[in-house]
């Protein structure tokens, strides 16, 4: 009877007990998949972080060159440098006159007033407020000098192709304003998000550089 019962179970497709090798293979598959996925995500995140750092470095270099300054800020910076240069020349002249008067020698006055092109950084004896002169270019390129806007005659704006616009059917509830076709205008700095969504942009962007316009 036992032999007949075993044969019946075997031929009727009875449930077979899982083998330990199958469990080990399945566990190895999941572990390998998790390791590969984690390694890929970690590598991709490092690439994203490196790209963000390079963008920050480029923005910092442009900031040092005054690219992000407005016209008013640049004017104030130039006036400040002019005042500093004026104070330096006045102190240099006072020191030269005092030394020439004490020595009663015109050559001492000429030695103190050596042209800046021949002496880029005068000594403390010649100039108590010794500092190198920072010569600014007559024209500096800034962001607000770039023409922009659809109505600007100097700007060449092209409309976004229809096949590149997002589908309205996939608009979520918080982007319901896109249902009317309002995708915003980056050139004119017009945001299509409402006042609730605008402050949260920093939460879903890797690099956020505030616009100056």
TrEMBL record:
This protein's name: Uncharacterized protein
């Amino acid at each position: 009877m036992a032999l007949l019962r075993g044969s019946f179970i075997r031929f009727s497709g009875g449930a077979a007990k899982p083998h330990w090798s199958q469990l080990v293979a399945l566990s190895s598959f999941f572990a390998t998949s998790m390791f590969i996925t984690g390694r890929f995500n970690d590598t991709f995140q490092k690439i994203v972080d490196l790209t963000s750092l390079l963008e920050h470095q480029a923005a910092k270099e442009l900031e040092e060159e005054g690219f992000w300054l407005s016209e008013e800020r640049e004017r104030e910076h130039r006036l400040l440098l002019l005042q500093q240069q004026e104070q330096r020349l006045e102190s240099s002249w006072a020191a030269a006159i005092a030394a020439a008067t004490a020595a009663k020698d015109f050559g001492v006055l000429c030695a103190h007033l050596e042209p800046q092109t021949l002496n880029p950084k005068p000594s403390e004896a010649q100039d108590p407020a010794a500092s190198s002169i920072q010569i600014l270019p007559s024209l500096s390129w800034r962001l607000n000098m770039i023409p922009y806007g659809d109505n600007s005659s100097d700007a060449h704006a092209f409309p976004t192709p229809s096949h590149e616009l997002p589908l309205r059917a996939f608009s979520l509830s918080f982007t319901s304003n896109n249902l009317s076709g309002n995708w915003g205008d980056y050139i004119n700095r017009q945001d299509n998000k409402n006042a609730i969504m605008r402050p949260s942009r920093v939460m879903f962007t890797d690099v956020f550089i505030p616009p100056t316009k």
